[in-house]
Amino acid sequence: MNLFKITLITAAALATSVASAQGAKLKVGLMLPATGTFAALGTAIENGFKLYVAEQGGKLGGREIEYVKVDDESDPSKATDNVNKLVKRDNVDVIIGTVHSGVAMAMARVAKESGTLLIVPNAGAGAVTGPMCSPNIFRSSFSNWQPGFAMGEVVAKKGHKRVVTITWKYAAGDESVAGFKEAYTKGGGQVVKELSLPFPGVEFQALLTEIASLKPDAVYTFFAGGGAVKFVKDYAAAGLKKSIPLYGAGFLTDGTLEAQGADADGLLTTLHYADGLNTPRDNKFRTAYATTYKLQPDVYAVQGYDAAQMLGIGLAATKGDVSKKAEFAAALRKAKIDSPRGPFTLSRNHDPVQDFYLREVGGKINKSIGIASKNLSDPGKGCNM
Ligand code: BEZ
Fold first, then answer.
1. What is the pLDDT of residues 72-116, one digit of tens each?
2. How far is the CA of 172 from the centre of ligand 1 (A)?
3. How far is the CA of 99 from the centre of ligand 1 (A)?
4. Which atom of ligand 1 is the closest one to the Cα of 74?
C-alpha cells in the first residue's frame, strides 16, 4: 500500500471516530434489487432490517440511522459502479447487500479494498466468505453450498438413484448444485445431467422436455424470486410433477407461494427458515412484521432483520464507532445471534452456522417437517484470515 493510500485511510478512520464521538448519524448504504426478478427479495430484506432498527428506537450502538439506497438491478455488470457510489460518493459507514451472488462478489471486492464494513443479507456466493473473506465482511444468510448439501443428504436417504439438476448458470446455481452433488453422491446417488440456462431467463420448455426424456428418479433445482414462480408452474404444466419428484433449495418456494398456488403443494425444500416454527422468538418477529408491513415475512425478511441485529452487536461493542474493526469483528465472532430462525453463531469465515429445515409446502406455507442438517457450517474453502 502506498503512503497516499495509508494517509487517506487513516484520515477516514479519524473522521469516523470524530463523527461517532459527536453522535453523528450512522450512514447505512442499502444496495439491494428494487427491480427485476429479485425485486421482492430486496424489499423483504429492507423491511426486515428496518423493523429491527425500529425495535431499537431507530438507533444502533447509540447512533441514529440514515439510509442511502441503490437499486443494483441484480446486474453484475453495474455492480462495481453501484457500490462505489455508496463508498466514494456517499461515504457510507456500512454497506448492506445484496441478493445476487455475482453482484455480491463485486461488492466484496470493493469492501475488502476500501475496508468498508459489509454485511451480506442474502447472496450465498462461496467466494465472499471463501477466497475473498475479510475481517470486515460478514453474512447473515447462508452460503449457496449449505441448502444444496442439506438436500443432497435428504434425496440420497430417500433412495433416489438418478437425479437431474436444473438451475440458472451463475455462481448461486452452480454452487447450489455442487453442494447438492457432494452430499448426494456421497450417499450413493448419481447426477445424470446438469441442466442450466442463463440468469434471469425463464424459457424452461426445452429443458423440461429434456427432463421428461431422461426420466430421472428426481430433479434438484435452484431458482428464486420471479424465476422460481415460473419454474414451479411450468414444471406442473408440463405434467412432470406427477411423475418426477422435484426437490429444491428453499428459495424455490419462499416468498413465492401466493403466486405458485397449488402447483407448489407437496414440494420438499431445505432452508434455514420455515413457516410455523412456533417458537416465542419467531412468533414475536412474525407478529411485528405482519403488523408493520401487512405481509407475512419470509427468509429474506429474516436475513435483513438479522443483518441489523449483527450490525447492532458490533456497534454496541464499539460504542457506535465503525472504525474499531477488530473490536467489531471480535464481538460478532463470539456472538450467539438471537434469530427468528433459531439462534446461530458465525464460522471462522463469518458465515452462519445453523440448522437447515426440511420443509413441505401445504396450505401456502413452508412447514418444517424436521431438521435436515443440524448446525451446518460452510467449509470456507480458500479463506485465510
Ligand atoms: C444468490 O444469487 O446468491 C441468491 C439469489 C436468490 C436467492 C438465493 C441466493
1. 999 999 999 999 999 999 999 999 999 999 999 999 999 999 999
2. 6
3. 5
4. 2
